[in-house]
User: Fold this.
Amino acid sequence: QVRLVESGGGLVQAGGSLRLSCACSQRAFHSHGVGWFRQAPGKEREFVAAISWSGSSTYYADSVKGRFTISRDNAKNTAYLQMNGLKPEDTALYFCAADDRMGSDWYYFPSEYHSWGQGTQVTVSS
Assistant:
């Protein structure tokens, strides 16, 4: 497992932007795929975006395609989620997660990740 720490959440008006960061203190981060998930009160945790260990492949939920961009900088052991055109329905607690399994089918499922951060709150006002 790796230890992950999210940051960058906050309160923003609809249409605004935020960039979330997911930092890891361990070099093993380089070999882990990273996913971003979110959970609103009373709702299940849902997939937002994911990126392969090399950064060559990215995956997005339909609800965020064209607005959010996932990236990573392995030299800094950090993954990012750039969120533009935020909507009130994007309000949630955002988590990053990581795992080092092979393949790509697993990125969409929170149960497939062995490491999680504590979450960072994103609130979008209308």
User: Anything to note?
Assistant: The mean pLDDT is 96. The CA atoms of residues 90 and 124 lie 7 Å apart.
